[in-house]
Design a protein that fits this description.
Length: about 270
Amino acid sequence: MRILRLRALVVIIGLVVAACSSAEGVDHGIGSGLGAEAVAPVAVAARPNPDVSPPETMPTTVAPDPLRVWVATAKPRVEVLETFDRPGGEPVFHEFAITNPTYYDTPLALLVTAGDDASRWLKVALPVRPNGTEAWIRAADVTLETHRFNATVNLTTKEVHVYDGTELISATPAVVGKPETATPVGRFYVNILLPQDNPYGAYGPWILGLSGFSEDLDTFAGGLPVIAIHGTNHPELMGQERSNGCIRVPNEIITQLAETVPLGTPVDIVR
């Protein structure tokens, strides 16, 4: 798994991860410091459809195995990912450009949700607002990998379960969002893997960023309110609603996940 960057096409935008502490010194989420002044639609000119043969590993539909996951990683030549409303359709523009490499200088990885019959186009879930946004991309702009990892965050029981196929590899209590800054419900995927300089700090040793955003906060720490699974320096709060929307797990669990689950791992947040 590797990491997320958001930057505008013309102006490079700083994206920072910042802890938000309460009086008791507890973190309440992560913020990607994409300043509001830089959040504007970026027009990207569409290129002609490439006349190339698709890779042999290209799926033509959503994989029949419900646990099989396809992950599209942008090729190095793709600096800004172009998205479309349908195969061969009109360009779709978002709140910010979807850049490659990411802000943390790693390739852009996206969860594939469908493909066209000719295998020239892929439908992908995008790490943009609003949550659940999907669009079509050219298959020629990405390479494909597949795996069967998946995770569920249950907001009622405040537990996280992670699977490799049907095999449970991790189960843990968690801290979830407060009622006023609730953890959003839906299907997201891991698109950040960020080690922390201080493994004993508010985020623990790792942050696993997700493709979703808080639906109660417009901004956080001066930027976009990105949702993540991360460690904590207050493990005694497990099983409580205390965060600004992120999911906190014990440090030994976040370390296990960082060493195991790949980018594109689906994370279903349910009630």
